[in-house]
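Ticket #4471: structure output looks truncated?

Reporter: J.K.
Steps to reproduce: submitted the chain below (188 residues) through the standard prediction queue, then opened the result file.
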Amino acid sequence: MSGGFIPDQAALIDAFFHEQDQKLLNQLRARLDRQSKKAQLAEISGIADEAVLDRLVELNIGPETLAAMELVPLICVAWADRKMEPREKKAILAAAETVGITSREELRELLDHWLSRRPGRELLDAWKHYITALCTQLSPEERQRLESFVVSHAERVAEASGGFLGLGKKISAQEQAVLDELHRAFVL
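Returned output as attached by the reporter:
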């Protein structure tokens, strides 16, 4: 044979380039999907730290999981004294609005349920187990940034009740106990 391709060679070359094209296409799709997940996580959480967002995507944490991870501490702190104060509810709704939770119908329904009915202790326990497991996958710096982000919102809710007529101690003993539990969940 002089200078031409053997028919099977042409098919082999076509298959190779098709496979390479598919690989590149799949890599592009994965990169776009990752960017989309990061954008969704950033929108839901308000987290701007690229390293934390990358790590959450890498750990396959979706927007709904992250939203629940943020809401549970707020709800548990607000219900710590067995009643939901109007100012606490307002602070939770403001935090939920800030991170885009109220615009997602399924998350808003869950939030409304938790605002009207005190969840059982198992919700906080499940959250703590989840956070503890997640923290084993994070570096100390990532863990600290996530803790700071999550707990700071809960502290704002605790401070919202503001004592009697806005005077006196801003955070009750029951709320502080829940805040302490939240902090401990991030410690390995």
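Triage note (M.O.): checked the attachment and the full token line is present. Residues 27 and 54 are 16 Å apart (CA to CA).
Status: closed, working as intended.
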